[in-house]
Design goal:
This protein is an alpha/beta fold and 230 residues long. It has a single domain, classed as P-loop containing nucleotide triphosphate hydrolases (Rossmann fold), CATH 3.40.50. The protein has 7 helices and 9 strands. It has helices spanning 37-45, 95-104, 121-132, 151-168, 179-185, 203-208, 213-229; strands spanning 2-10, 15-23, 26-30, 53-59, 70-73, 139-143, 171-176, 188-193, 196-202. A 6-stranded mixed β-sheet has the order 5-6-7-3-8-9, with helices on both faces. A 3-stranded antiparallel β-sheet has the order 2-1-4, covered by helices on one side. Strand 1 and strand 2 (15-23) form a beta hairpin. Helix 2 crosses helix 3.
C-alpha cells in the first residue's frame, strides 16, 4: 500500500493542492480540468514547475524514484516518442529485453524496427506502456492514457492494464476525468475539486451511492456525454 499522508503544493501566495490518499490496489483520482490531478502526478514524479513548492509526507516500503519504483504512462502516445527514431532505439533496455516487453503488451518483435508514425494509436500506447514497465515499477502512474484512443482500443488498453497488474504486481494511480474508464480499471476512487479531495472510497460504493453533489455531477455529465457521442 502507498499512503500519501500529505501532499501540499503551493506558491508564496496560495495553496494550490492539499490532499492525502491511499493506494491499496488501484486508485482513480478523478476531477475536472484544473482540479489538481496533473499537479499531483508531477509532484510524485518530482517534475513540478520551479515556481511551485511542495511538502510531501508518505508511507511506502520503497523510495519514490522516477523511472525506477514509479513510472508514467502519459496522455498522448503520439507526442511521447520521437517520430524519426526506430522503436528499438527509444527503449532504455537491451533489444532482447525490449522484445520481451513488447510481447508482454501484445506486440510482435518486428515493431522494434518500425517508426512511430507507422503505428496506430493503440499500438503506440502499447509501446509506451512497455517502456513504462521496463524498470519494473512498483507504482504505475497513468495520466489520462486512453484519451487519444477510440472506444474499442480504449477498452483493450484498460483490460491490458488489468492483466499486467496481475502479472507484475504493481499499484496503479489512474488520473482521469473519465469516470466510466476509471470504474472499469480501479477498485478505489478519490474525487478531487479545486485541489482538495471531496470524496473517497471503494469504487462501486462511491459510484453507486455518491455523497457529494460534485461527484454526482461528474458521474451524470460523464455518462450523458458518452451517450451523446455514441
Amino acid at each position: 500500500m502507498f499512503e500519501c499522508k500529505k501532499l501540499k503544493i503551493f506558491t508564496d501566495k496560495e495553496v494550490i493542492v492539499e490532499i492525502k490518499f491511499k493506494i491499496i490496489h488501484s486508485l482513480a483520482l478523478v476531477g475536472e480540468s484544473g482540479s489538481g490531478k496533473t499537479l499531483t502526478l508531477k509532484a510524485l514524479l518530482g517534475l513540478l514547475p520551479k515556481e511551485l513548492k511542495m511538502e510531501l509526507d508518505y508511507s511506502w516500503e520503497y523510495p519514490l524514484i522516477r523511472g525506477k519504483t514509479l513510472s508514467l504512462v502519459p496522455q498522448n502516445p503520439f507526442t511521447s516518442l520521437s517520430p524519426l527514431t526506430k522503436i528499438k532505439n527509444q527503449f532504455f533496455t537491451p533489444p532482447q529485453e525490449a522484445q520481451k516487453l513488447l510481447e508482454l503488451v501484445g506486440l510482435e518483435a518486428s515493431f522494434l524496427e518500425k517508426y512511430p508514425p507507422q503505428l496506430s494509436g493503440g499500438q503506440l500506447q502499447r509501446v509506451v506502456i512497455a517502456m513504462a514497465l521496463s524498470q519494473k515499477p512498483k507504482l504505475l502512474l497513468l495520466d489520462e492514457p486512453t484519451t487519444a484512443l477510440d472506444p474499442k482500443t480504449k477498452t483493450k488498453v484498460l483490460k491490458l492494464f488489468q492483466t499486467l497488474q496481475k502479472e507484475l504486481n504493481f499499484l496503479i494511480l489512474f488520473v482521469t476525468h473519465d469516470i466510466a474508464s476509471a470504474k472499469k480499471l480501479c477498485k478505489e476512487i478519490a474525487v478531487i475539486r479545486k485541489g482538495r479531495i471531496v470524496e473517497t472510497g471503494k469504487m462501486e460504493e462511491v459510484f453507486n451511492h455518491p455523497k457529494e453533489e460534485y461527484t454526482k455531477m461528474l458521474i451524470e455529465s460523464n455518462f450523458a456525454n458518452r451517450k451523446f457521442r455514441e
